[in-house]
């Protein structure tokens, strides 16, 4: 029917993008040492220099955050503009409906006056023919 609560104006997409790291910030650990000097244990525990290279970068870059903010504001701007257009369309619709209702009321009143005049003339003829 409507937009789900967690995806209102596309903020669910922004939330999902902010919660996962970008592909360029993920670190790749290459174990090139074939000797058994404990490099596997170091890579597993995260004490090697290759693994600590991107350990603290679980956030987005400044450009990603700026792009997300700009997109959010632009989508908000588009939503406000669409809402204003819809609001003005509803006002125009109300004006047109008001004009149609007034025209219909004027026609109904005119018909009622015509029926009342017709009824008066018929009653007058009945009274004249009854008296004769």
Automatic annotation (TrEMBL):
It holds the Pfam family IQ. InterPro entries: IQ_motif_EF-hand-BS, P-loop_NTPase. PROSITE patterns: IQ (PS50096). It comes from the Eukaryota. Belongs to the IQD family. The keyword Lipoprotein does not apply. Keywords: Calmodulin-binding. GO terms for molecular function: calmodulin binding. This is IQ-domain 20. May be involved in cooperative interactions with calmodulins or calmodulin-like proteins. Recruits calmodulin proteins to microtubules, thus being a potential scaffold in cellular signaling and trafficking. May associate with nucleic acids and regulate gene expression at the transcriptional or post-transcriptional level. PANTHER family: IQ-DOMAIN 5-RELATED (PTHR32295), PROTEIN IQ-DOMAIN 20 (PTHR32295:SF108).
């Amino acid at each position: 029917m409507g937009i789900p609560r967690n995806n209102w104006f596309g903020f669910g997409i922004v939330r999902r993008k902010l919660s996962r790291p970008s592909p360029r910030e993920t670190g790749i650990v290459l174990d090139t040492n074939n000797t058994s000097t404990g490099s596997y244990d170091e890579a597993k525990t995260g004490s090697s220099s290759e693994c600590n290279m991107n350990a603290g970068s679980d956030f987005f870059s400044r450009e990603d955050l700026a792009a997300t903010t700009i997109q959010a504001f632009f989508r908000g701007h588009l939503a406000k503009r669409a809402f204003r257009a819809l609001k003005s369309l509803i006002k125009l619709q109300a004006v047109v409906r008001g004009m149609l209702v007034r025209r219909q009321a004027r026609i109904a009143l005119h018909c009622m006056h015509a029926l009342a005049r017709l009824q008066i003339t018929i009653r007058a003829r009945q009274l004249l023919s009854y008296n004769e």
